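Fold this sequence, please.
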Amino acid sequence: MCQQFLTFECKSDSRSLRELRPPVALDDPSAHVPTMIPARFAPIFIGLFLSGIMSCLVSGIATWRAVWPVDGFLGLWMLAWLNAWAVAFPAILVFAPLVRRLVGHFTKDS
């Protein structure tokens, strides 16, 4: 088991972790690119982030207006946010295509 994490040395093995890793060619473009999510999942992630941000803001304002002078406000807010997010995320996934189609009827391509 490694005893010295900062120096990348293991007492049980005299080789460093860098020596144990396979070499990576510096000119290989895939060597330094982080793993990306396929573009077909973009609408799901947009809905996830949008619903998270909006439900956080709305639940924070609603909780603040309802119970502001209470100790434990942050805990109440987080509980309200998680409950709101559980409703908001599926709602965005269902209604986003309908809204996109509705907006398409009122706009034109330039």
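Residues 40-106 form one domain. Confidence is low (pLDDT under 50) at residues 1-10.
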